[in-house]
Write a structure and sequence with these properties.
Blueprint lengths: L1 H16 L17 E11 L5 E21 L1 E3 L4 E4 L1 E9 L2 E3 L1 E6 L2 E22 L2 E4 L2 E10 L4 E10 L5 E7 L9 E4 L5 E8 L4 E9 L8 E4 L3 H4 L4 H26 L14 E3 L5 E3 L7 H9 L4 H13 L3 E5 L11 E5 L10 H11 L4 E3 L5 H20 L7 H29 L3 H18 L9 H17 L10 H15 L2 H9 L14 E2 L9 H17 L2
Parallel strand pairs: 1-11, 19-22
Antiparallel strand pairs: 1-2, 2-8, 3-4, 4-16, 5-6, 5-8, 7-8, 9-10, 10-15, 11-14, 12-15, 13-14, 17-18, 19-20, 20-21
């Protein structure tokens, strides 16, 4: 507290220096120093703790603005301040009211009276609220009316008018001094009396008057300093409220997921299914169950359209004879590879899914061929229509009750809104109260909504059997002995299975099966759906398809 008063008084003296004409400056030709010859104060303590103060300042050789200070903020532990408020101020000189300026700066309240000249007397009256604090055995008035005055005070007398008093104390001198005042006593017929003679400039007089319990009411004004610890208080009320919000929020998120986001199917269920079936004349037919397409399979599994779904669809369209992929000759060993995608004029008459038609139009537009390196903004813009068509398709099949992308977008919007509310609430509550933890709890619930929103698209019961079939197909793609396929259909059936393996896994073993069809050292043209450049061999197919996938993804999805 004493170090705090040091800063207070320095601030007060600095304020005094900025008033323009320093109090205590002498007139021209005067040899006497400006002083306060007498300071007399009577303080009446009301039962409700209000202090009624009357002061008389006798000034000598003072010219300019006279400023006096009162310490009105006491800093305690745990970011707590006890505050005193000076009110109802009136200053008179010679019976005439003088204009005065009351201001609060930091820990000090200052009262300035301008145009003071020569020898004069100033009479102050004011009230003080907040000076009575509760102590162990009663209450205490703690008041420091003389603080940092830039003049010597030759004689100071303070008399209290009070009910029964239990104890008194008074210190005077330097800011960190514990030196007792010249006089501090409890009179038999009068109230407590204090006196200090010869108080140097900038020194302080502090008084304490104690009362038995029940005599004087405490009227302490408590304010809290803005600290991180205070703003995010872990007191019982704040902590329990924040934890309650977190628990209720977590319960609401769990209930929301169980009601709206949990799949209505068992993803572990396996339904007998195969990509291959025995046809006429012992031939093997490629018959994906429910006429599933690779893009639909990928969307059904993870409820979103990924680049691999679109790339697998392009390969599937090529394998089914709707377009061809031709790898162009490399200008040099280090040049970037490129491919020509070409529409097939006599494509099979099978009915394409809507998203497949939209994808073909997005790739080719009005032309019949396009280079992968030239797939630009027009194709990327058309991909949104492909995604719309694919999402609409899985809803039309009854696998979802509403489009997964719109479900995610809805809950993401709600999550962002709750998070923003939480962040704003945290800032406001931390700035103006000690309930910052409550704002953090709300923010955490918002973040939880953002996380759970990604899992909110729920598969409908109709998707259950299809998912079981997809599980069986994945097992077939990963474990089937490819050598069991008929030799004359080996390349055709491996090519048909490849797009599904790209989505479900195991694409390497099906590409290797295609490479295994190369039985000589001569250069190869490739297949009806993929052709290599001059000097190309099937052994290059893994690298060619890997580069094709990378370049297609970059061309279609890089912004």
């Amino acid at each position: 507290m004493r170090l705090r008063l040091l800063g207070v008084s320095l601030c007060a003296l600095g304020f005094l220096a900025m008033t323009g004409v320093q109090a205590g400056a002498t007139g021209a030709g005067s040899s006497a120093d400006p002083v306060v010859t007498n300071f007399d104060s009577e303080i009446r303590v009301e039962r409700d703790g209000l202090l009624k103060v009357s002061e008389s300042w006798k000034l000598s050789n003072v010219t300019g603005t006279f400023t006096r200070f009162v310490v009105t903020r006491d800093h305690l532990a745990d970011a707590v301040d006890h505050v005193q408020k000076v009110e109802d101020l009136e200053v008179k000189s010679g019976g005439q009211v003088r204009k005065s300026e009351l201001s609060v700066k930091g820990d000090v309240t200052s009262i300035a009276v301008a145009d003071v000249s020569g020898d004069t007397q100033l009479d102050f009256t004011y009230t003080v609220r907040g000076a009575v604090a509760k102590v162990l055995n009663g209450t205490e008035v703690r008041f420091a009316p003389l603080t940092g005055v830039n003049l010597t005070i030759q004689d100071a007398n303070i008399v209290f008018s009070t009910p029964e008093v239990s104890h008194v104390s008074c210190t005077a001198g330097a800011l960190d001094s514990n030196t007792p005042c010249t006089l501090a006593q409890i009179g038999e017929t009068a109230g407590p009396t204090f006196r200090q003679q010869g108080l140097p400039p900038g020194n302080v007089v502090r008084m304490t008057v104690g009362f038995p319990d029940g005599e004087i009411a405490s009227n302490t004004i408590v304010e809290y300093r803005k600290t991180f610890k205070r703003a995010f208080s872990t007191d019982t009320a704040q902590l329990i409220t924040a934890l309650l919000v977190l628990l209720l929020g977590a319960g609401a998120l769990l209930a929301l997921y169980r009601l709206r986001g949990r799949d209505q199917v068992d993803p572990r269920r396996v339904v007998p299914a195969s990509l291959f079936s025995l046809g006429q004349d012992t031939r093997i037919d490629f018959t994906p169950p429910a006429n599933l397409r690779p893009g639909e399979v990928g969307t059904l599994i993870d409820e979103r359209i990924d680049p691999v779904d679109v790339t697998a669809t392009i390969i599937d369209l090529a394998v089914r004879g709707h377009l061809t992929i031709t790898e162009l000759e490399h200008e040099s060993e280090y040049s970037r590879p490129d491919w020509e995608l070409k529409r097939v004029a006599g494509a099979p008459s099978e009915e394409l899914q809507r998203y497949e038609n939209v994808l073909i139009r997005a790739i080719f537009g009005d032309s019949d061929s396009v280079l992968v390196s030239e797939l630009g903004k027009q194709v990327r813009a058309g991909l949104s229509q492909v995604q719309d068509a694919l999402y609409d398709g899985v809803v039309k099949r009854g696998w979802f009750t509403e489009r997964p992308d719109r479900t995610r977008s809805l809950w993401a919007t709600i999550g962002i809104a709750v998070t923003v509310v939480g962040v704003v609430a945290t800032f406001v509550l931390a700035l103006f109260s000690s309930w910052g933890l409550l704002g953090l709890a709300i923010t955490a619930v918002g973040v939880g909504l953002l996380v759970i929103g990604r899992h909110m698209p729920a598969k409908a019961p109709a998707a259950g059997r299809v998912l079981g079939q997809v599980a069986a197909i994945r097992g077939e793609l990963l474990e089937m002995d490819v050598s069991e396929l008929p030799t004359d259909q080996h390349a055709e059936l491996c090519s048909r299975a490849l797009p599904y393996a790209v989505v479900l896994g195991g694409s390497e073993r099906w590409i290797d099966a295609l490479v295994a069809t190369d039985v000589d050292d001569d250069e190869d043209e490739g297949f009806h759906w993929y052709r290599g450049p001059r000097g190309w061999h099937l052994q290059y197919l893994p690298d060619s398809l890997r580069n094709l996938t990378t370049n297609l993804t970059g061309a279609l999805f890089t912004r």
